[in-house]
Amino acid sequence: MAAEFHLRTGKLVALLNGNRTAKRNKPTEEFNHGLAMSREPLGDGQLFQVRIDRKVNSWSGSIEIGVTALDPSTLDFPSSATGLKGGSWIISGCSVLRDGRSVLEEYGQDLDQLSEGDKVGIQRTAGGELHLWVNGRDCGVAASGLPPRVWGVVDLYGKCTQVTVLGCDTISRREETRRPTATAATTTTTTSTDEGFVGMELSDVVNNAILSAYSGSLLNVSLGSPLDGSCSVTSNDALLFHEKCGTLIKLSNNNKTAERRRPLDEFNNGVVMTNRPLRDNEMFEIRIDKLVDKWSGSIEIGITVHNPNNLDYPATMTNLRSGTIMMSGCGILTNGKGTRREYCEFSLDELQEGDHIGLMRKSNGALHFYINGIDQGVAATQTLPTVYGVVDLYGMAVKVTIVHNHNHSDRLRRNNAIMRALSPDVGRRVFDSGDTEVERLLFHPNCGQKAAIVCDGRTALRPHATDDFNHGVVLSNRSLRSNEIFQVRIDKMVDKWAGSIEIGVTTHNPAYLQLPSTMTNLRSGTWMMTGNGVMHNGTTILDEYGHNLDRLKAGDTVGVMRKDDGSLHFFVNNVDQGLAASNVPSSVYAVVDLYGQAAQATIIDDIDLPPLPDEPLDGNNQISPCSLFSLTPSNDLRFHHLHGNNAVITNGGRTAFRQNCRSEFNDAIVMSSRALREGEMFEILIQKMVDRWSGSIEAGVTAIRPEDLEFPSTMTDIDYDTWMLSGTAIMQDGNTMRNNYGCDLDSLTTGSRIGMMRSSNGDLHYYINGVDQGVACSGLPPELYAVVDLYGQCVQVSITSGSPPVDNSLSLSNATEKSFPIQSPVPGIAHRFHSNCGKNVALQNDGCRAVRIHGFSHGVVLSMKELRSDELFEVKIDEINEQWSGSLHIGLTTLQPLDVSCSSSGLPSSLLELRSKVSWLVSGSEIRRNGMLQKQNYGFSMERLTVGNRVGVKRASDDTMHIFIDGEDMGVAAAGIAKNVFAVVDLYGKVASVSIVSSSVLEEAESTKPPSMSSDSGSEEEEELSPCENETSVFMATVEFMENHGRNILLSNIGHTATRVASYNQGVVASAQPLPRQLLFQIQIDRLNPQWTSSLSLGVIGNSPERFNFPGTASSIKRSAWLIQRDSVFHNSLKICDNYGPNLDTCPEGTILGLLVDNAHSLHLFVNGMDQGVAAQDIPNPCFVVIDLYGQCEQVTIVTNDAMAIGGDSGHLRCQGDVEKADVVDGIKENLCWTPPPEVNPMKTCEYQALCARFKELLPLPDGYFDEELKCNLCYCESCHKLRGDEAYYKRGDPPKDYALPFGWCRFALRLNPRCEVANVYKKWHTAYHGTCVGSLRRTLDHGELVSAGSSSIFCTNEAKVELQNGYNDPEENSIQEKDVVKVSLSPTMRYIGLDRFCPKIRFKDLKSQRHHHAQVAFQVCVRPGSYKVGPQSVGASESIDPRFSNNEIEWITKERASTVLYGLLIRVE
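Predicted structure:
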């Protein structure tokens, strides 16, 4: 037979090279549909052999080969070879399948391990046996009983994408016997004698018998495969679990399944290992079969050099301190120590039942882990050659099964998961760019539970933004390319919440990510810009980074870009905010958090840009629901890309603003993208102004093309072919032609509209809010460009949708528009019709006009968005066709426009027939609900409407529907209206065309809003400054260090940064300007050098430092000087106050220190925004700030932001991001009372904390119990808690309850239970403390609960049934007797629970100082409200122990199981 493939193949296969080569198309997008078959049936003994030409690494699995009795000429090809039925034998991986069912495992060589260039073939012998050949070697009998007529089958599956047929040679039995084989007894070559032939036949008989026994599960051996390295291991060498395992492990399924017994009682002692060492490049993979939702932590997997026969199994593998590498969570532990905190984007603790975990030791010694078949990269290098696979069924993980590579169904599931991740079907659009395909950035369909993705993946929104403020996380559908910007425009905002949009990148694949409520809660692989700061893994890394995102408005844009050098940059309105982070990995997804006020955002990119001037538009202009920038000839005007130096064009060319508006007032000229047509209106909307400069916007026209213009600082500087309106003056070529024109541009405010139009007779007209101001000048030439000068107070404008000149008949509609000012031209703010409409409707004017183009019916249109309460949706009748009877219908419906496209029938021919959803409408003078008559003789009959009449519908706040005719309310039309309704209009009968004349109900302009606690969301440009604030802003704009300074000082950064470049002294600097009263002057400590002792000091001097001869240190200034040094205050070198504030020598890098002189002439020190009180009095005026960069302090920088840097209020919370910004609305905390976490950056650790840490290292406690984030460890010594500005007492829980901070102790944070986080345990439970002894620490941590000193646990085996709020239950019945329960003592203050009775002291020797100390230990815990009893002290104290707590309520007693959660380990050293 010819060595060719049959012409009929799978749908993705292409045949080349005379049908000898088969190639799978789209190899990186599809993994199956790659079937190819031999052209003719195989003859007896014929070898059908192919060579693997090409493989890709995108998928799991590889080539599959076999035979089938099905004729390819009539075959309906399945997606893969394992789907062949009706007499098909397929070898997949290292198993043999018959008609899709496995009949033999561990056969031959694993086909998944073959490489490019390897040869694989299939042979049917004369005896009906099937043989597999790999690289010229026979792997033995794979099956028997084959029919005489079979075709060869090759499946280009998974990684295998191309093969070539090598030949179809016939191999006789004698030729087969000449081929070298290997047996257990000999390695000699069989000769071609009759004896050899007989011997081979006998061997086959034995093989068949063994294989038959194996298939019947009688034996687990196979002698039919040679032991040469090119062939596979035999089945008795398969990877199984070793019989020796953890004490709670039960093995089954021929040692392929391991299960932990008593999973609800025990969480460890579940270690299992492989029965033999792993081979190089061999996959060890398991499937999670069962999980329990009780414990923290889950499965752990890795390798160890320890032989299971000789190993004394530990309770958990992370306790093994030698020769072991484990993946735990998303990190790597080596010998129990964390070596890589964020190894991959997956966490083993988040995997579900059915997920796969694998590992492989490569031949180069590198260790790789695989999650659902996806390689997570190198976890460790240079591992030893002899290692065993090990699995720890820990915590939630109860049961696993070893999975072999040949399991086709598992590979299919994994490949489908990979394909969903890499090429999601939903929202995937590809745009051509030459010959390559570029996948457009869209939102991934997997989004937050309160978010929705619409418009083909372009737009994300929170549909119920006024009900919830979070759960609005959305990610991009693919990872970002280097230097690719991901940019979104804010479409819609609500004013109910605090906080707003957040944007960033994450390494987590959206297909697998369990989306958090907010992205700042994600603790791995995530960088986010929130407010004006940057957070990494939930912790703030930059406080004052860029423009505050909480102050953005609808129409503003935000973007993020990872550059090819690994740096991360954020963009606000196309302005780069600078470097935000470095060393960001290459494969990151963009992420947007529609948080708080942000309700809707749309991706914008180059495809959104309008066509270039004079470029024709192609295609029809009907607006789709997501074609936010679809253009018609009436609205294609944009701002030109050439403009003044300070101007920025954004929003697809529709918006222009002046950057640095507080420091620059000109150089912001913008022009139209093309010349205006005759009678064409160019109208702009003023969106933002500042009350800083004189003068305002100037507007006009010019005959100069933008390409020919060298933009001046102001347009009135142009001396040719230019006509401008400036204030009330009309100017031509820079000269005033006339004054007192009909309008004054300097008097316009935010929300005003300015229009310019050249009429056909050459007259220039200006329009203010749609009203013609008359002829400004005459005799203008054609081909004029509109020009706008964003001068002085005017900061930002946007082009409106461009309407024709207004006539008098529309005066009332103009008033309506004025009553609902369009704050932004962004589509979706003004009312629009939805593109899902009746089949006879055409939408025009950017969706604002609807025209019925055929017949008298099928004219139903719906509003783009739901109507808010008391929001009027109003249309004007443009055209009447008296040919038809009947008239317009209008009303409200619960039918969502997006549901129309999903319906096979679409919209009905008439609104009267709309009954799929509840609808209320007016027809004539009748009110109908779902077509049923509800009321007659209502108001004005729709039959009497004519051109120019306006008809509106409103859903009132009392759930009633009102109809408006020409602005007059006709009264209640219907009651009981649903909340989520859309306006609906039926262009029926004689009404052929209508236009929308209403706009959405918007928030009040900032200038009209009353002051509120949440006014931070307003723009800083709109805040009025008091005289004192003006003085402050002027000072902060010019503040710098004086050029006269200590000789070792170097100034940089325009005088804002001072650096000591030599020695430890001669580092005194002073402010160049006097310090105004009530002004906070702040500096930040940039760099410390631990080589020296002591640190900076700061204060004020009463003499000008301009000609001052600075001494070596500031403490030597003895005239009119007040200095704060360490924790003391000095006046003229004499100490006047002790124990003031924190010790400045302990301030770490990043600390912000400030000085303020109040109106009473008293000096105050601020540390991280916290006032430390009066340091000195009678400070003279003027005075200058003086700073001494002494000892460790080498560099400081002036903080020039207007807002004070506020430090943390609390010292107890875990880390940044635990608090939701929207928990505080208008200054009122919702549901719970707790304080924001401290912004601690312990780059320098205090000596007391270091001493406590050294004592902790002496304790035999595994690192896995502790949080790896050092920032979560807090020291409460006197200096540290004063440095943070901690209060002594806080509230926590629901209902709130007081507790005291553990002053004098040092806290080491414990690793949190993720299910407790989900249940809000750390927010809703109370905070308390439990004293213990050193000997009970390890046992307590091992059990995950409090234990007494005299028992293994305070709870017996029969556990009490306790329900964790919002969490999970313990299923056991409460059979324990009250007398057997050990009571646990807790207290809200360490002053009580820290007494020796509860926390016995232990003596130890500090290895660093060689001194002896006494130490105590305790736990900070969360205790469930209602689970404890409040009682009196039991230590016999006669005086008050803590002034905040009565001695009769200072001890809490609990007996309940699962009522406490460990939170932190406390250590005190004396």
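Summary: The chain has twelve helices and 93 strands.
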